[in-house]
Amino acid sequence: MSTTTEAPQVKETTKTVDFKTIIDIKDMDLYYGTYHALKKVNLTIPEKAVTAFIGPSGCGKSTLLRTLNRMNDMIPNTRIEGLVDIAGTDIYSNEVDVETLRKKVGMVFQQANPFPKSIYDNVAYGPRLHGIKNKAQLDEIVEQSLKQAALWNEVKDFLKRSAFSLSGGQQQRLCIARALAVNPEILLMDEATSALDPISTLKIEELTQELKNKYTIVMVTHNMHQAARISDQTVFFLNGEVVEFDQTDKLFSNPSDKRTEDYITGRFG
Ligand SMILES: Nc1ncnc2c1ncn2[C@@H]1O[C@H](COP(=O)(O)OP(=O)(O)OP(=O)(O)O)[C@@H](O)[C@H]1O
């Protein structure tokens, strides 16, 4: 019995070793004013996989996620030290254009935030901003993005309707389509399902399994069951530090650190 449960874990481990690192964080510290929110973070995130950040409220999950597309630039008095390298580029170097970075590293938030525009115009917004004007080309991008976000069949006959006419779950998939429309490499999801009903949540969870064939997904979740269900790697944070980073199977079944074990067995947090 124990042999059969262990066998797939070994296979998974072998597979993960083959993954190429796309995000490499070295000795990274982040301060909000004098508050030291992230402490000496060292982390490698593999491409074309789902990596989940878990940990108790206030441990720094969202802060770390925001550093990956420099959303923290918008927060006054934030200071960052160390290296955040994405696909070979130090994203905090002076030469980096933040708009180009955010095109490459898209983000989906806890609350779906479609623009007050039609479904079509929400998805076409990014491509238009990046200079695509040709109608046929835009039509193609909108269709492909909505298909990838598993929304096309539900909206294809109503593309000119307001995005606000959609349900919460559909709006969140529209936001995913909007992020995909500019052809990112990485998709950051900050508790993207926590405001959704179970069926919409399941749809987005299934979607992540499709999307990871093409994109790297990094997600913050409060829901450990969700992390266990859909992520390949899990990072456990506590008080601004990475306590443990491992294959999801391993981290949940045989954590190396006592603090991880205490958290996943519900002893705190
Ligand atoms: N803009 C900000 N200014 C000052 N402190 C902040 C700011 N944003 C977050 N913090 C602090 O940094 C710490 C980490 O916050 P963060 O939101 O990253 O945690 P989290 O793990 O994502 O929490 P939650 O699960 O509750 O969303 C917390 O102590 C928080 O109060």
From TrEMBL:
PROSITE patterns: ABC_TRANSPORTER_1, ABC_TRANSPORTER_2. Keywords: ATP-binding, Nucleotide-binding, Transport. It comes from the Bacteria. The keyword Nucleotide-binding applies. Residues 23-264 form the ABC transporter domain. Gene3D superfamilies: P-loop containing nucleotide triphosphate hydrolases (3.40.50.300). GO terms for molecular function: ATP binding. Transmembrane segments: none annotated. It holds the Pfam family ABC_tran. The keyword Nucleotide-binding applies. NCBIfam families: 3a0107s01c2 (TIGR00972). PANTHER family: ABC TRANSPORTER I FAMILY MEMBER 17. This is Phosphate ABC transporter ATP-binding protein. It comes from Paenibacillus arenosi. The gene is pstB.
